[in-house]
Specification:
It is built from 2 helices and 8 strands. It is α/β, with parallel strands linked by helices and 141 residues long.
């Protein structure tokens, strides 16, 4: 079984995925607009170029998404896209780029459970967590 996050954007899915492709050094496998699909008749004309389905592969991870006229940042709650990055240097780079223009909840730094960790929302309202380095050994109470 594989679990893959599916994100909803309010008209900026393509922009967000181009950004994620660059930052995560991934590859967009699919970027399908509503136009010329059976879904075209179910969206307003101005949404024809908005994304019906997108798929991004970064390493062995996949994120999928689409634009939804009903999506809003307030719906992006109750989850975070969690990245496990082995290199602290690479984790810091990803954190700096993804969090720019967003809202940082917990800055990139040392923690009691992993070498480095951060929590934030990116400029598109998507919540992220980044864990870097080795997990620290838990101690019993």
């Amino acid at each position: 079984m594989t679990i893959q996050p599916y994100l909803y954007f309010h008209g900026d899915c393509e922009e967000a995925f181009r950004f994620y492709e660059r930052v995560l050094k991934g590859k967009i496998d699919a970027m399908l607009p509503h136009t010329a699909t059976p879904a075209e008749q179910h969206v307003p004309a101005e949404w024809g170029s908005k994304i019906l389905h997108a798929r991004l592969t970064a390493g062995d991870a996949v994120i999928m998404a689409s634009d939804s006229a009903n999506a809003s940042d307030s719906e992006k709650r109750g989850f975070s896209v969690s990245l496990q990055v082995p290199s602290i240097t690479e984790g810091k780079r990803i954190y700096n780029e993804l969090s720019e223009g967003g809202k940082v909840t917990m800055p990139f730094g040392e923690t009691f459970f992993v070498e480095r960790f951060a929590m934030f929302q990116d400029r598109y309202g998507v919540p992220w967590m980044i864990s870097c380095g080795q997990a620290k050994e838990a101690t019993a109470r």
